[in-house]
Amino acid sequence: MLKKIKYALLTLAAAVTVSACQGFLTTPPVGSLSPDGFYDSPAHVESGVLGVYSLLRDIELNQYLLLSEERSDNMWVDPLANGIRSCSEVSNFRFGSDMSDLNSLWASWYSLINNANSVLENSAETAFADEAMKDQFRGELYFLRGYAHFELARIFGNVPIVEKVLSVAESQELGQSSPADVIAFAIADLKKAEELLPYENGIKNSKGAAIGGAGRVDKVVAQAMLARAYMTLKGYPFNDASAKANAKSYLEKVLNYSASNGDKYWAPTITEWKKQWLTDPSIANKYQIFSIQHTLLNGNGLTGSESGTSLTQEYLPKGGGGGAMTPAYIDALLRYDYVKNNDPRGLGDYFMDGYKAYGATTTDYSNEEIDVTLEDGTKVKSYALSINTKFLPFKQKHEAVGMTFDYDQLGGWPVNFPVIRLEDMMLLYAEILAEDNDVAGALAQVNKIRNRAGIPAATASSSAEALKAVKNERRLEFFLEGIRWFDEIRYNEWEASTRAHYARYAATHGEGVAEGNIKAGKYLCPIPDDQLKARPGLYKQNPDW
Fold this sequence. Notes:
The chain is mainly alpha-helical. The chain has helices at about 10, 40-55, 60-65, 85-90, 100-120, 130-155, 170, 180-195, 220-235, 245-260, 270-275, 280-285, 300-305, 330-340, 395-400, 420-435, 440-455, 465-475, 485-490, 495-510, 530-535; strands spanning about 75, 290, 330, 350, 370-375, 380-385, 385-390, 415-420. A hairpin with a 5-residue loop joins β5 (about 370-375) and β6 (about 380-385). The longest helix is centred in the N-terminal third of the chain and has 26 residues, at about 130-155. The two termini are about 25 Å apart.
């Protein structure tokens, strides 16, 4: 697990932490720096901005894997794993408000918000020779603050809105806001960011050098996040009919920008597409609208969660070393959906069916086939325990796409984590087109992605069939990116999907699964105990927890 910064919201006002980074996302925040006199130049303001970005690395593992992907029907997690593991507790809805990962995520998001507020407030009067640069830096901070509130609302629901640096007294009186109000606040921040930020070619550092494509947010990133926020409001549990038109407008802004700039963010071949999951962040930034940045010194935590220490030196020449495998596997039915079409996104890239245990020469790591039932009632065989390797850049992946990596420098894998990709915008747009009975338009978006993968085109003769094709493609394209869980919620399908997911494994791996743990309110996580206890009575727990 990533090391977490242990702040509670109610103590954030007492200690403001902002880092003076030497480069973009290369140094994590350290120490406590007084803002007095610090933000007296564009370079100092930028250091504060970069410190806020760097806090994203404390978030991705819990936000997008543990509390999103591992709650979805994309992954099967052993309910009787060796020892008490958060992934097992979460996947089987046995966790409670006392789980430390919840407080870590809450604290990390609010640490980011507090840092953004500190830089915004203490740089408001800083003199800039170039006002556009000041607008950019402030736009980045508004984006990060809005993004944080949006994700807090999606995970926890009723959370506080923090729009300024709080005194201790203020923090002790600040209550929760509804998820709709929190997302409305996030949207307001994201719109400020959209207004202030330039397009990628206008992004600069404090020295005036162009740095577009280096992972900093720009106008299109803000528009893409706005599209996602409006699509969230359009679906369950908000069901806001007015959000659809706003979502469509922002999706069109992003897609039109891409089309008018040479299919920007689109990987033209499956080989190019595969490169974004490897060890050259510049390629990831080329094909991802917004991603959390990683370097050798600050590697992607998801790689270690995907059995990286269990692979042999056949895969990782300077890695390996044994250790227990993480008991989390691709869902057997989803695995079948990849292999039935020889989808190159699946076997050998997103997952592996087995591998030699560390130190062994002939014995494959155990796997087994189980029966899975297709929608038409047909039963087929699929492996139950295939391991997830999407973010694990092992040797064979590099070789397959003509890339190299010096494993002697291995300290962590510099694999960026994608938060928003063009394909997400395409398929959200296809979702709206399908609902509006534009079947051909919806399929055009879906099949552009499938054609690149070299798999059969989707077909549909009705709006319902087109929407089904969109949902299926979203599941295939975004495995392990933390998207599926929120899709299940938007579609109001998470309960039915979870029960069907459990049923697939019931006969062979169902011991320890209790369907009674699935309750209507559990699409949200509980408010962490530490927050409830900080000032008893200030916060209310979410239903069914």
